[in-house]
Design a protein that fits this description.
The protein is built from seven helices and ten strands. By secondary structure, it is of the alpha+beta class. The protein folds into two domains: 135 residues, Nuclear Transport Factor 2, Chain: A (Roll), CATH 3.10.450.50; 118 residues, Nuclear Transport Factor 2, Chain: A (Roll), CATH 3.10.450.50. Helix 1 runs antiparallel to helix 5. The chain is globular, with a radius of gyration of 19 Å. The two termini are 33 Å apart. 36% of the residues are buried. Keywords: Signal.
């Protein structure tokens, strides 16, 4: 974004009175916007500099859980200011909503190419809290030729949201947390399973090969606790913590469910920095 637009956007972030006035008289378009529309607008504003999008964030209560960003709108503004001019790119691939939560799956150029999940919590139609998980975008397709973000994007089977969430909750806690791998087949339709992790091929067999290869290298992936399960229709997001290669990590796993079985998977694993490096005190999983 150019310096004029960038400066105006940053000012909107750090001058609460300006944001309050934007919220005072919502337009007819704003009144018809869904929470998902507002979350998308906020993310896109990182690239476009759209000042109106900032009115979708509560200027007095915005809790930040990205540990590399300061709390509140001022912290977000500081990050925008540090971006090299014209470098920010945002490509939102998937957007889903459950109640007051909206979660997105996005490709970024944000201090380099990245892929990430963002989670927003709304109150009274404005964003009051944000969590995310980011990783470097892989330059290579995975062993089965999939990228980190391709595949199905639209939610269906909305009436089965609760059922699909229960399936993922059971899978995460039984298989990933408790490690009861003898029950793995219960969650899949044979070996039909599309995988988007850059290092893992399709099928339960592909997962097994990857875990075996990691074990030979002494790399362990441990899920210690699940914090949140959110879903819309056949898409379910799981947020967990644990360790990867002995580093404390955050695991965001997105699953697509088909006929009561896990059919597709996307993920982002991010190392959690030591508390001495945190720029806010809210914690990676606080509030979940």
């Amino acid at each position: 974004m150019n310096k004029i637009v960038s400066g105006a956007l940053i000012a909107a972030f750090v001058i609460p009175m300006g944001i309050t006035s934007c919220n005072a008289h919502p337009t007819s378009k704003e009144k018809s916007m869904t929470l998902s529309d507002k979350a998308v607008a906020v993310l896109n504003s990182i690239e476009t500099g759209d000042q109106q999008a900032i009115s979708y964030i509560n200027p007095k209560e915005y809790t930040q859980h990205n540990l590399a960003v300061g709390d509140g709108l001022a912290g977000f503004g500081a990050v925008l200011q540090a971006l090299p001019e014209g470098s920010a790119k945002v490509n939102i691939i998937r957007t889903f909503q459950e109640g007051d939560f909206v979660f997105t799956h996005t490709e970024y150029n944000f201090f380099g190419p990245k892929v990430g999940f963002d989670l927003f919590r709304f109150e009274d139609g404005v964003i009051v809290e944000h969590w995310d998980n980011l990783t470097e975008k892989s330059a290579q397709l995975n062993p089965s030729g999939h990228s980190q973000t391709d595949g199905a994007t639209q939610a269906v089977d909305i009436d089965k949201t609760a059922e699909n969430k229960a399936l993922v909750n059971d899978f995460v806690n039984t298989i990933l947390v408790k490690g009861e791998f003898d029950k793995l087949a219960d969650y899949f339709d044979g070996d039909h399973y599309i995988q988007h992790n850059p290092q893992i091929g399709d099928g339960v067999s592909g997962l097994g090969k990857a875990l075996e290869a990691m074990a030979k290298q002494g790399i362990k992936m441990v899920y210690s606790q699940n914090h949140k399960i959110l879903g819309e229709g056949n898409f379910v997001l799981s947020i967990s913590e644990g360790t990867f290669a002995d580093k404390k990590s955050s695991f965001y796993d997105l699953f697509r469910i088909e006929n009561g079985k896990i059919a597709e998977h996307w993920d982002v694993i991010e190392a959690i920095p030591p508390m001495s490096e945190w720029k806010n005190k809210n914690g990676k999983f606080g509030g979940l």
